[in-house]
Amino acid sequence: MASQLSRSRIHALEDNVIHRICSGQVVVTLASAVKELVENSIDAGATKIDVRLKEFGSESIEVIDNGTGIIERDFEAITGKHSTSKLREFDDLQSVQTFGFRGEALSSLCQLAKVVVHTCSSGAPVGTRMEFDTNGDILARRPLARSRGTTVIVNQLFHNLPVRRRHLTDPAQLAKEFARTVNLLTAYCLISVGVQISCVRISKNGEKIPVVSNGSASSLKDNIFGVYGQSQASSLLELAPISSIPSDILDEFNVNDALEFGSISISGFITKPSTLQSADASSPSGSSKGRAASGARSTSDRQFVYVNGRPCELPRVARLVTDVWRRCSKEALAVSNDGLQMPASNASTSFPFFVLMLRMPTGTVDINLTPDKRTLLLHHERYVLALTKAILVQTLFRNSNVHLPSVQQSCSTLDQSIIVIPADCPPEHCTLSSPNLSVISRKRTPFVDDSNRWGKRAATIDFTDQRSTPLCASHKTPPKSANGVAGLGESFEIVDLLPTTETLSRQQASVHFSMSDLRAAWSTMDENRTTPITQVASQHPLDDVDLVSNGEFSLGSFRSTESDTAESELSTYFDKATFNELQIVGQFNLGFIVARHAQDLFIIDQHASDEKYRFEQLFENYRFTCQPLVAPQALELSVAQEQLLLNNLDVFAKNGFAFRVDENAPCGRQVQLVATPMLEGHIFGRSDIEEMLFVLSESCSRRCRPSRLRTILASRACRSAVMIGTALDHAKMQRIVRNMGTMVHPWNCPHGRPTMRHLFHLGRLGC
């Protein structure tokens, strides 16, 4: 016991242990190692930076710059723990304008790799080559002839961390890490005006293969052209400056105009929504050609946000930009159609290319949140969101000649209004005695969260109308109760009132009709299954009530939460063998199979289960019909995307794509598309290839398929599956249940419906 107590006593860790643990948090991936070296070069005033990755970076990383170099008296300090020239005291962090400031990069790299540094400062007669050990001490030093600047060579990254090293050298994982590294370098290539950044990959035979470069780096637009080419650069709009933020947008984001206007500025470029209209019009049954022509993307891989020149991740800003751009794209598409038509589906699923540069006082940004410094905390985030939206509205809607609906318009007709009715009122009552009923006149929705566009609402109820009117109420079960209803003598529930055919109160309700509003409301409605019902209103006298809904009354979100919980429970309880052990009890209501495992009773949706089995079979084994092209199409891919495609030609072949590879062509233009898959009149193309490349870069799954194919196969599986209302004998029920044990993911059908639920434990009934 004494020995156990002594082993469990708290003690201080050794310095080398602390350093090794902390270093593993600073440099986590290949991308983070390259990032630290490139930032050091930019901070050193370099105007030219060359990055060389041998064997995709797994063997060595070499970063060469023409910066100021390192003076001799700092040779011992450059790899010291927390040694930096950027800060002197903590208060300096409020005004730091360099990328680095912690002094951890080279020290951590020495701990995790074999580091060699070549450097020459402006006053030195000759350069110096230094080798460092894991503690950052100089092992060897000798003179070296070189021009002014610094070269840092990192060999065998993670050589002393077996798990990370194995992960890095695995071919599939290495391709993923390389793609992330290129994406990160791209962010610096775009923002670095006046700094030429290039990256090459060195193959086993020593061949240098260009990966990414920003060309002349004379301006942001030139950088975009250098990285992505003319087609992307020509599809962009420059964000227009504004003189002030409209008051309605300030109110929407709950912002006071007390902040001095001009202390925060936003500039950059974004894809033109108007080009999407013309491109899609000529794209048959798909959006691949339209997206390519318009500069729009099927993924969010080309969205860049910078704060004071620092690449960062601001998901709320990126989401806001995408939402405003999509709305403008829908309007542009709808304007081209005379009459009420739904916008094309790609307007709702495409992503804009944008480069957004935010400038603000350094003291209003906290950059010291995470080791990679990409997660920032903005002091005036609401103001930034309001300014972003105002600039986007100014730029997008005016350039696309689309009418922008006023944010101040009343939503009494288009929006979902709220009424209060007794919760215990049976739906079969056929008259609505409504001496206390009227449409809610909605005020401006205060900003809560831009991700929940139709979520929390504030409304005032004025009960004045004396007439009886049938209602059309949405069958939504609110996942949370609403607060703020006081003085009611009985239980009440909130339901959504869809527009009725008759105005309830001519004096109280003002209706502002707009075709663009109607389209926008139609395209963003949640799943609402409506049935005309009538309810008996409460006879309790009510004063005007300010009702604030604190819950998101969405059937979709309610089902999602419920399904996720149940799925987690079933995943814990079940494995494939458990399905084979289920005993069939019988069929319920011609739609569900009741099965038993030990003392637990389960109910299985016969249609959803059979549909999911058929879907997985189709998804795994389906072979496309290839449509050869009359003329091969050149694919303008980044070098990383091209390499990823070449490493996964079998995956694309399984999906019906055929390519011609010209090894003598420049990198990024070696692959030509010669045949595309075709299914049920849908022609797949460039956007589907880009989508698959994005998925392959994020995961190593060999089961990658275009999302449009998944939708088509899900519909086919649904039509061929056992339907609700079909009587099943014991053998058919047994087959459906046994098939569930062969599925990869048996818990939900392709459309998201749960396949099974646990009913109860028979032990509770004494069975």
Overall description:
With 767 residues, this protein is α+β, with helices and mostly antiparallel strands. It folds into four domains: 15-168, Heat Shock Protein 90 (2-Layer Sandwich); 231-399, Ribosomal Protein S5, domain 2 (2-Layer Sandwich), CATH 3.30.230.10; 411-553, no CATH class; 555-626 and 636-655 and 682-767, MutL, C-terminal domain, dimerisation subdomain (formyl-coa transferase, domain 3). The chain is 33% helix and 21% strand. The protein contains 23 helices and 30 strands. The strands form eight sheets. An eight-stranded mixed sheet has the order 5-4-3-6-2-1-7-8. A five-stranded mixed sheet has the order 9-10-13-11-12, with helices on both faces. Strand 11 and strand 12 (310-312) form a beta hairpin. Helix 2 packs across helix 4, helix 12 (315-335) runs parallel beside helix 14 (381-399) and helix 18 packs across helix 23 (730-740). The longest helix has 21 residues, at 171-191. This is MutL C-terminal dimerisation domain-containing protein. Belongs to the DNA mismatch repair MutL/HexB family. It comes from Opisthorchis felineus. Residues 224-397 form the DNA mismatch repair protein S5 domain.
